[in-house]
Automatic annotation (TrEMBL):
GO terms for cellular component: plasma membrane. One of its GO terms (molecular function) is phosphoprotein phosphatase activity. It is found in: Cell membrane. The chain holds residues 145 to 432 of 433 of the full protein. GO terms for biological process: cellular response to phosphate starvation. The keyword Phosphoprotein applies. It comes from Bifidobacterium avesanii. Residues 41-275 form the Histidine kinase domain. The keyword rRNA-binding does not apply. This is Sensor-like histidine kinase SenX3. Its cofactor is a divalent metal cation. Transmembrane segments: none annotated. It catalyses: ATP + protein L-histidine = ADP + protein N-phospho-L-histidine. Signal peptide: none annotated.
Length: 288
């Protein structure tokens, strides 16, 4: 009976090993396919502006004695190279967000209002070019756009989270950037921060073009765009929300979206509130 017992156990082990091996290979295949898709997409996205630049440069040489033409073509070259640079910057961001070691994550107590103000500030020029107002609020109450103004108004209240500040700033910055990009002129964007039940919510609400229902579950994919032509024309790369998703995940949070075409979109980040929120202001204090 000893021999029989052994054989059964050996069989089981083999069976398990077999199953594990199959699993491993299919996982690897899926990863390989994803990587291949990604490389194809990246090369395509980079080739388009790169090709345009060399074509425009050739044309400019032919039109060298017409100042108007030279001005026109160099303007286009500048635009295409800006796009190329943006694309590469985004790819590096995405790479970082997918690889927490490269991101060099360092968690600390972070002021959510500080992050939100920075994200809004980073998009201030684009917003004002489109006459778009960006309002910040905390638990429903309007908040001064800068920390200095807030101090003057003697404002109180903030939310504190324990995470990597750069990752959260990148996420919120990208959401505000999209809100501005996909909103018509003279509209308002709201960025709201709220705390309830140990959870911090950051909401970016726009009155923009909205997202069709059947695209909603795809917009966080890399290179997915509802309208590629429009996104490209407005400087989009299709990478913004993929970056947002990864950053929010690295922060231990979740991201969700509500949207209706012609009405607008709301992106909501939910994060756990820092346990020791009171330490935010003293974190810079020298130890001992
Ligand atoms: P892109 O660089 O093209 O903006 P994203 O990954 O940031 O790429 O977004 C993916 C797609 O989701 C966009 O191309 C756009 O179609 C849609 N989208 C994202 N944010 C918004 C928004 N606030 N309003 C309307 N559509 C949006």
């Amino acid at each position: 009976s000893d021999t029989l017992h052994l054989r059964i156990r050996a069989g089981r082990i083999t069976e398990q090993l077999y199953a594990v091996l199959i699993e491993d290979i299919s996982e690897q295949r899926r990863f390989e396919a994803m990587r291949r898709d990604f490389v194809t997409n990246v090369s395509h996205e980079l080739k388009t502006p790169a090709g345009a630049i060399s074509l425009l440069a050739e044309t400019i040489t032919d039109a060298a004695d017409d100042p108007d033409m030279v001005r026109y073509f160099s303007g286009r070259i500048t635009k295409e190279s800006a796009r190329l640079t943006e694309m590469v910057k985004r790819l590096i961001d995405l790479q970082k967000a997918q690889n927490s070691q490269a991101l060099n994550l360092s968690a600390a107590n972070v002021s959510v209002l500080k992050v939100v103000r920075e994200a809004v500030q980073e998009n201030a020029v684009q917003a004002s070019n489109k006459h778009i107002r960006v309002n910040i609020s905390f638990d429903g109450t309007p908040v001064a756009p800068t920390a200095a103004e807030a101090a003057q108004r003697d404002e109180h209240g903030d939310a504190t989270v324990f995470l990597d500040e750069e990752a959260l700033t990148t996420a919120v910055k990208n959401l505000v950037e999209n809100a501005v990009r996909y909103s018509p002129e003279h509209t308002t964007i709201g960025v709201g921060v709220a705390v309830a039940g140990g959870k911090v919510t950051i909401r970016v609400v726009d009155q923009g073009i909205g997202i069709p229902a059947d695209s909603l579950d795809r917009i966080f994919e890399r290179f997915y765009r509802v309208d590629p032509a429009r996104s490209r024309a407005t400087g989009g790369t299709g990478l913004g929300l993929a970056i947002v998703k990864h950053c929010v995940q690295e922060c231990g949070g979740t991201i969700s979206v509500w949207s209706r075409e012609g009405e607008g979109s709301t992106f909501t980040i939910e994060l756990p509130e820092a346990k020791n929120a009171a330490d935010t202001k003293t974190e810079q204090a020298p130890a001992g």
